[in-house]
Amino acid sequence: MKTLADPANSLTRNLAAIRTRFQVSEGFPPAVLAAAEAAARRAPTEHVDRTGRHFVTLDPASATDLDQAFAIEPSGADLLLHYAIADVAWFVADGDPLDLEAWRRGTTLYLPDGKASLYPPALSEAAASLLPDGPRPAVIFTVRVAPDGAVHLDGAERAIIRSAAKLAYDSVRDADLPAGFVELTARLQAAENRRGAARVDPPEQEVAARPGGGFELVFRPRLLSEERNAALSLAANMAIADALRAHQTGLFRVMAEPDAHAIGRLRQTAVAFGLRWPPAAPLAQFEATLDGSNPKQAAFMLAVRRAGQGASYQPFQQGVVPWHAAVAATYAHATAPLRRLADRYVIRATLAVTNGQPVPEGVTEAFAKLPEVMARADAIGGQIDRAVIDLAEAVMLQGREGEDFAAVVTDADDRGARIQLRDFPVVARLAMAGAEPGDAITVRLVAADPEHQRLTFERAS
C-alpha cells in the first residue's frame, strides 16, 4: 500500500489534507539540516577496506536512499552473502539533533506524492546511501546459507565498500547479478516453503485512467527480482535475530497468527472474489497458490495484509521465544536503517556481540523504549496508508453514484456490516441489521467523496 502510484496526479488535490491531518513533516528544522551537513563530512576511521569486493544494489529505479548492497561468494557447499547495510550510526550520535529528530519521527512515511524521510537528504540520499558514485561506510553482515537454506551469521564488520552498479527491479537481468544470486535465493525460498511461512506481499496498487473516463485501482504484480531481493533481507534479519537471541539481547519483530475471527472474514472475502479456498486448507497453504497478476487474487492478498493482527517490536525476554508468524521464524529488523529508527540500534548490538564486545548501555536502554516509539510511527504510517487507499477508492468510484454493485458480507456487528465488493478491491461498511457473514447482497453507491476519503453505500437488494 505504501507504494500506491498516482501517475496521472488524480489524488494530488486531496493529499495535502491527508498530510495536514497526520502532521506529516514537510522538511527538517535548520539545526537538524546543519547537523546532517556536518555529519556527512565525517570521514570513516573504524572501517576496513572492502572496496575490492563486488557489491551491487537492487532497488526501484527511482530510489536514492539505498540501505543495502550485496556480494556473494561460494564456501564449499555453502554460499556466503555479504550484506552491506548503510552505517547510519557512524553519522548519527546518541543525543545529537539528528538522533532526537529520528526518535520523533520513528520511520520514513510514504505517500504517492513523496515521502517524509527519517533523516535529511544529505545523509539518506547522499553520504550514508550506498550509491555507486564513490566509497561509502557500511556494516557488512556475512550470512552463511547452507544448501537447505538454513542461515547463520558468520560475522559483522564496519567496512568501506564501493557499489559497482545500481540495479533496478524492472530492468535487471540475471547476468547483471553476482554469481550465485539465483541459487542463493532459491535456497532461501525453499526453506521458507518448508517452514510454512505466510509472508504476504501484495502487488503495488496504482491509479489508472479508464478509457471512457474516470479512474480505477489496478495492481502491478511484484516482479521476480523484488521477491528475490526480499529474500536476502529476510535471511540477514533471521541470522541477526538468532545471533542476538543467543547473546540474550536484541529487539525483535513479532506477529501473532490471524485469529479465528479474521480467518472467517478472509474466507468470506475469498467467496466475494470467487476464489476457491478448500475448507481444510490453512491460510498459509492457500496463500501459496495465489497469483498477484490476477486482479481478484491480488485484492485478496491485500485483504490478508489488512486482516493481520499487526506486527510489533519486542525486546529480548528471558524464556520468551520472539516469533513472527508470517515469517515462521525469529526475526529482527536490521536492514533498513535509513528508513527505520530501530534498525540502527539492532545493527549496533549485532556489531558488538559478533566481535566479542558488550552491547553499549545506550543500545540496551533504547531496546526498552523503541517498541512504543515504533508502534506510534507504524500506527501513523498505517493510518496514512488507509487514508490514501480510501482516497483512491473514492476517486475510482466518483461519478458512479446511483450504480449497483455486487458485494458479500465479510463481517457483521452491532454497527452494521463490513462488505467486500465482488468486482473491485473495495471494503466498506454498511448500516444494515440482520446481516450474516457470507450473505451475497447488492449495494448502491450513494456518495463518493474524495475530499473526505469516504464511500457511502446503501443496500439495494
TrEMBL record:
InterPro entries: NA-bd_OB-fold, RNase_II/R, RNase_II_C_S1, RNR_Ribonuclease
Protein's GO biological process: mRNA catabolic process
Annotated Pfam families: RNase_II_C_S1, RNB
Database matches in PANTHER family: DIS3-LIKE EXONUCLEASE 2 (PTHR23355:SF9), RIBONUCLEASE (PTHR23355)
GO CC entries: cytosol
Superkingdom to which the source organism belongs: Bacteria
Name recorded for this polypeptide: RNB domain-containing ribonuclease
A GO term for molecular function: RNA nuclease activity
Stretches assigned to the RNB domain: 47-356
